[in-house]
Structure formats: structure tokens, C-alpha cells
Design goal:
mainly alpha; four-stranded mixed β-sheet; 68% helix
């Protein structure tokens, strides 16, 4: 219920902020009148609402489908009735950690890949999925796997899936809104020049708007993605801290060092990349688009905690 209210409050806040900003700028600079003189519609409130709906729709549809799509795309085997000691141990560890942080027992699964990795997903923290790879189970000892599970449970308990979706929706909204504002201004300017020259090309203005809005959306989306990835990296530090509290700081450090010792981990596909235990390697400009901080930074952060 809290996350539903948070979503509604965020949606409302975006509309209010855009409305206030528009009214302030309009009052100071007479933007509406200028737009009317340029032949543009002054009712950018419609664009704001349209941007809000489009911006959040994709993010929340993806969130709603995250658990089922993760099971299909990763081939996750959900442990309903444990068939061996390892599966029983996984269920017991997750149950103990979930109880400690005050969430309902997530579904627990295993996916078959040699890469050591794990992820958590789900639209609600009381209906989540935590899954680990066979590669992780084969290369880490029990203490290290326990820490990885703690990291994923921390993601769930912190509501990271919903928070990430909210942020993505907000960024999408602003990208869509400002790309269309830019397109309207450019289209109007070009339309005015053609009219002043006595020229008229039917349908060309619509094509200009489409091209400019597409280019602007790509450029602004590129910048928005930097913000989303920064927040994803921040969440990883918080999840490491949560994993350390659940399993023990040294176990969490050892788990991250185990990832370092193995071959370099790779990102999970699509939206799951932000919710895994490990991420790809990058430096310089590429680092801005990483879902996870470098392992050495995560280890150093844990080692510095007292």
C-alpha cells in the first residue's frame, strides 16, 4: 500500500512541478502569448499529462511483469519442494533472512549459467523472487552464498525494484516532455521561416516535429540514463551493507572477493542487470553507464565500515 501511495504521490508531484514551472516562466516571460504569436499551442499541460502517462506506463508494465519474465528469460527453476540438501539450505537461509528484515518469504530459484550471479525482482517486496546461478553455487562456499542471498534480500527489503521504477518513470516523463517542447519550438521556427518566405510544403512540418522530437528524446534519454545508472550503483552499496548486516561483514567481503577471483562477471540481461549481485567491468566514460560499482570499491566501502 505504501508503494502505491508513493507512486501516486510521485505522479502528482511531477505534474505539480511541471505546472508550477510553466506558470512561473509564463508569468515572467509571457511564454503563452509568444507561442500564440508563433502559431504554437500554448496548452503544454496536455503534453505534460501525455508525457507522464507514457513515461510511467512502460516502467510499471515492466515492473509488473518482472518476476514472470525473469523466470522465462533466465530459465529459473523455482524451488517449491526441495529435492536435495542444497535446495533445503537455500530455502532455510532465505526464510531466516526474510524474517529478520520483516518481509514475506520470497520465491527462491536457481538458473543454469556458469557465471556466478544472483538477482532479486518482483513488483512488491512481499511477493519477490530471489534466484542464484549454478555458477555461483559451484564457485562459492556456504558463507559466501549466504552473504549473496543477504545482498539480494536487502534489495527486496529496501524496495529497490519499485524505487528504481519510480526514478525511471520520472526520468522518462521529463525526457518525453522536453523532447516534445524542443520539437515544437524548432518546428514552429522553421514553419515561421517558410511562411515568411512565402513557401509552403504540406506535411513537412509534421515530419520536422517527428525527426526533432526523436533526436531530442535519444539525446535526453542518454543523459537520463546516466542518472538512473548512478542511482543503481548507489543501491548496490546499500545492498552490500544490508547483506553484511544479515550474514556478517566478513562474509559479504569474502563473497565480493570471490567474484573478483573468478572470471570477470557479466551483466544479467535487460532490466535484471540492475538487480544482480555482480556487474560488468568498466572505467572512464563507460563507468557512467554501469549498473554496479567496481568490486574493489564495494569491498573498500565494506572494509571501511566500523
Amino acid at each position: 500500500m505504501k508503494r502505491v501511495l508513493l507512486l501516486m504521490a510521485t505522479n502528482f508531484a511531477v505534474v505539480v512541478v511541471l505546472g508550477i514551472l510553466w506558470n512561473v516562466l509564463d508569468g515572467l516571460f509571457g511564454i503563452s502569448e509568444s507561442l500564440r504569436q508563433m502559431g504554437l499551442p500554448a496548452e503544454f499541460g496536455y503534453i505534460a499529462v501525455m508525457s507522464l502517462v507514457m513515461g510511467f506506463a512502460g516502467s510499471f508494465i515492466s515492473l509488473a511483469m518482472s518476476k514472470s519474465s525473469a523466470k522465462r528469460s533466465m530459465g529459473v527453476h523455482v524451488i517449491e519442494q526441495p529435492t536435495n540438501q542444497q535446495e533445503r539450505w537455500l530455502l532455510n537461509v532465505v526464510a531466516r533472512q526474510a524474517e529478520k528484515v520483516g518481509i514475506d518469504m520470497p520465491e527462491v530459484g536457481i538458473f543454469d549459467t556458469p557465471e556466478p550471479n544472483a538477482f532479486a525482482t518482483g513488483a512488491r517486496k512481499n511477493a519477490a523472487l530471489v534466484a542464484v546461478s549454478t555458477g555461483l553455487l559451484n564457485t562459492m562456499n556456504a558463507d559466501e552464498v549466504e552473504a549473496v542471498l543477504g545482498h539480494e534480500i536487502a534489495h527486496v527489503a529496501n524496495g529497490d525494484m519499485v524505487t528504481q521504477t519510480l526514478l525511471q518513470g520520472v526520468m522518462n516523463t521529463f525526457v518525453i516532455f522536453f523532447s516534445r517542447v524542443i520539437a515544437s519550438v524548432v518546428n514552429s521556427a522553421l514553419s515561421g521561416n517558410r511562411n515568411n518566405d512565402g513557401g509552403h510544403q504540406g506535411g513537412s512540418y509534421g515530419m520536422t516535429y517527428f525527426i526533432v522530437s526523436t533526436i531530442a528524446q535519444i539525446a535526453l534519454g542518454f543523459l537520463a540514463n546516466i542518472v538512473v545508472m548512478w542511482f543503481s550503483r548507489y543501491r548496490e552499496f546499500q545492498a552490500d551493507k544490508g547483506g553484511a548486516e544479515l550474514a556478517g561483514r566478513q562474509k559479504m567481503i569474502d563473497a565480493l572477493k570471490a567474484l573478483q577471483r573468478g572470471h570477470q562477471p557479466q551483466d544479467l540481461p535487460g532490466e535484471l542487470a540492475a538487480f544482480g549481485i555482480a556487474g560488468g567491468i568498466g572505467n572512464g566514460f563507460k563507468k557512467l553507464f554501469m549498473t554496479h560499482p567496481p568490486l574493489e570499491e564495494r569491498i573498500a566501502a565494506l572494509e571501511s565500515q566500523r
